[in-house]
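Input record, target 12 of the design panel.
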């Protein structure tokens, strides 16, 4: 029992150290440092807001336009960044993987935690800033547990897809180049700047086959009492659990064959 606790403590310390290294690597060379993450997120949200203004589009179902876009952008960033970071975990971290205490899964978890923490903090700062400026009438998250579920689910979905792409990339190197292209297309089909209710029921049902869109709609439901439910927890679990299991099995495969 003591050996297990000691091993768990070592893994936690390794993940914490990897998180610090990840933060320094991402933002240490920038003059603005960690604030650069907030600048990038704010720029993305403002660009989407301007796009909606020029299109004369209003946020549906009584949710504010700022909250609508911040929720969509936050969940998308968590998914896409965890996928990209997981997919390149072997290629970019071979030096770390020479240490027996560090596994690819440790690096994946550390990167995912940094991404989630960064995007959540940026979203809260943006909402608070817009609230202070009077643009956002009220700042509240009515359903915290549902919000956490959407954040955790999108991160797990990104990790599972990243692990699968990691192994496929070993046999089909073109996968590494194809995934960013697919993500660019998926960005416009995931409801980052529109709601599923914008389209007809028939077309909206097809869009909801995309788990990322359901996680985004889940976050918006959690952030507004008036926003309707467009997500299906059973469908998300049916997709997420097998993919996550397959992703972790692929991670074990890489650990066994790629690092020996």
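The sequence produced for target 12 reads:
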């Amino acid at each position: 029992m003591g050996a297990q606790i000691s091993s768990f403590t070592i893994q936690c310390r390794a993940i914490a150290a990897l998180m610090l290294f990840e933060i320094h690597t991402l933002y240490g060379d920038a003059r603005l440092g960690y604030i650069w993450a907030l600048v990038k997120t704010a720029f993305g949200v403002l660009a989407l807001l301007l796009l909606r203004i020029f299109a004369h589009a209003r946020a549906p179902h009584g949710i504010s336009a700022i909250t609508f876009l911040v929720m969509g952008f936050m969940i998308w960033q968590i998914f896409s960044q965890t996928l990209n970071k997981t997919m390149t975990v072997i290629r970019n971290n071979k030096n770390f993987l020479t240490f027996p205490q560090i596994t690819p899964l440790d690096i994946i978890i550390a990167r995912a935690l940094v991404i989630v923490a960064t995007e959540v903090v940026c979203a809260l700062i943006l909402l608070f800033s817009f609230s202070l400026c009077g643009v956002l009438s009220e700042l509240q998250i009515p359903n915290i547990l549902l919000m956490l579920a959407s954040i955790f689910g999108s991160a797990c979905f990104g990790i599972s897809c990243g692990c699968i792409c990691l192994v496929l990339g070993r046999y089909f190197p073109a996968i590494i180049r194809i995934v960013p292209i697919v993500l660019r297309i998926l960005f416009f089909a995931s409801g980052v700047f529109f709601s599923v209710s914008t389209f007809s029921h028939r077309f909206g049902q097809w869009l909801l086959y995309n788990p990322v869109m359901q996680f985004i709609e889940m976050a918006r439901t959690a952030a507004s009492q008036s926003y309707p439910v467009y997500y299906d927890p059973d469908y998300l679990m049916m997709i997420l659990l097998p993919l996550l299991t397959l992703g972790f099995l692929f991670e074990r495969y890489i650990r066994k064959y790629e690092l020996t």
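The CA atoms of residues 157 and 240 lie 6 Å apart.
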